[in-house]
Fold this sequence. Notes:
Layout: H1 2-12, H2 37-45, E1 69-71, H3 74-83, E2 92-94, H4 95-98, H5 123-148
Parallel strand pairs: 1-2
Helix pairs in contact: 1-5, 2-5
Amino acid sequence: MAETVLRDAVAEAGLDGQVIVDSAGTGDWHIGHQMNSGARAALTRRGYDGSAHRARQIDASWLPQRDLFLAMDSRNLADLRRMADVGERDRIRLFGDVGKVGDVGGLGGAGDRDIPDPYGGDAAEFGYVLDLLRGAAPVIAARLAELLEPSAPKPQA
Length: 157
């Protein structure tokens, strides 16, 4: 779900072609399978299309090739950081940390920044996770836009 929602937010921010969004798990479960039916249904109810998604497992060789990795929870964050060289670890962050904006928008307020895995849950659990993703994704896209924005020329003195 996160890939689909973030890809949409990146497009809304006008970053198509500048930011590539993809996803992969740290485990080998369900490789090649479609997105979980509960996740697809939650996305469809909100106007997203998750039908093209196929499960993949991350490969350590991808770490130096990407600028940013967003883990959904602290367990996956730790797994990814263990796979990475020391110089790559600062580019591996929690989705919920990067998508946090104080108390307004995104994932506001204090508390846990893990995005729970609704796998095996009911429609309400998938909807809750989708709400978290939809709150954080535009914040992440805006931060990426700031990073990609060319520096404004400095006034001549």
